[in-house]
Amino acid sequence: MSDPIGVSLLGAGNVGAGVIRALTAGSERYAAAVGRRLELRHALVRDASRAREGLEPHQLTTDLDVVLGDDATSIVVELMGGEEPARSYIAEALGSGRHVVTANKEVIAKHGAALRDLAAEGGVRLLYEASVGGGIPIISPLFRDLLANDITAVTAIINGTTNYMLTAMTQDGADYADALADAQRLGYAEPDPTADVEGHDAAFKLAILCGLAFHVEVGPEDVVQRGITQVTARDIRYASTLGYAIKLLAEGRLVDGELLASVQPTLIARDEPLSKVDGVLNAVQVEGDLVGRVVLEGPGAGAAPTSSAVLADVLDIARDIVAERRPPPPQAYRSMRVRSPGEHHARRYVRMTVADRPGVLGEIGTALGARGVSIASVVQFEVDEDARTAEIVLTTHTGPGEALESALAEIAAAEVVVEVGNVLAMAG
Ligand code: NAP
Ligand code: HSE
Fold first, then answer.
1. Is this prediction's pTM over 0.85?
2. Residue 301 Cβ contacting ligand 2 at under 6 Å
């Protein structure tokens, strides 16, 4: 066998350690699959004085020039996370003629287009399978296996932390604060959970999926984002009674040549596959004209599953190096109008507390009807005999968000309405 193919890491934390373990344990198998050995060269870290399993001290560095100055390194694997310096380091690695593999959803969602251009200019590859859905193969299937399809929708549960929390709230009746504390104790949620619970993490991932599925340049700013912080145990109980689970659903859809992209807590009917994806699992559902509906489900995070995706990219590039194959031409992207939140058509769940007396529903119905919002069902859940109030949930037929919002502004101000509690999208 000829010289090994050098692989260097930028970042040797949770995922980096998993990649090092797998590279070591699977070295014979990988060599057989590729036709050449893979050799771990350097790992860039913040603290090079700390020992890392599977690495000799001389392999650790805090200096990018050490990595890029190593002629034997052909593949650079970025596993640092965050926007900077990860973006600049990836750009420098591509500019130096290295192939790059990254798990960084923020960098790819925000700067994917510029970095792909850089890679194309340099005749090298930039792969990012681990950036969405951890161990679930979804980037490569969208890029290759589903390419023949006209894809009309991608719906996904792509944040394990919030899915764990919503599952705990559903199955154990936990409230939001307890579910978050539990997720932090188990290491799923960061000490600052904002990126997960506010939907930013899922929005980065959805932007990447939409770009690949629809061949449109989509950034996180194009994704309507709403997190799970307003979801109460009460909403989950009521949704369950109505036959739905509440999930943080990421959805990209083409409607009349326009893109709708959103991450928001959504009621999903219990007979839909995504409603049954529980705990830290992730799942992505793709709808294409030829294939119909495909659902991919699996572990969305964790060192070993994420290493599986990272190393799939590394091995793919290594095979190209051995075969002396040039990178495939870059995908052509089209431009498309992105719909504003008010233009998103959906069925919706509305929880409100109202005076428990005759004529109240008539007043609410009139305000909704005046804006063309059609009520699908009304259920009265709880009555406070002392306050003479009742909590009701109404669901609407499909309609634009702006019409409901305008009606709810009038309803909230009505004397018979104590509070409009929560408004949630319903899938389908
Ligand atoms: P992590 O445990 O925090 O590790 C980050 C690594 O990068 C550490 O080795 C750290 O060095 C190094 N690093 C960070 N900033 C640096 C800087 N400015 N200069 C030099 N080194 C720096 O992160 P992780 O959980 O492994 O995640 C890595 C990437 O994978 C992220 O993009 C993440 O979104 C993505 N990802 C993670 C998972 C998961 O399950 N964790 C799943 C899917 C995707 P020190 O070790 O010296 O601190
Ligand atoms: N924080 C992410 C999640 C894992 O909870 O799904 C890394 O993508």
1. yes
2. yes
